[in-house]
Input
Amino acid sequence: MTLYEGQIGGQYLVEDMKIEEGISRRLQALGLIEGTRLKLLNRKRNGSLIIYVRGTRLALGKHITSGIEVGEVEVDAER
Output
């Protein structure tokens, strides 16, 4: 599924990024690469998503999040 289809509060693992090369490079510089774990914090009315990645909150638009393929991560009960 795409990150845009994710649920608020869900934790996901980035599997693939099918977005423009320039945007992909910028996200990689921010630490969002394949295999990265992230949490979906909020969804805005305009389609933007707020995510938590490597200790940082990022706001990404619908165009970008629709191109990021993710898989669900099972949350440990101890965390």
User: Anything to note?
Assistant: The longest strand covers residues 11-17. The two ends are 25 Å apart (CA to CA).
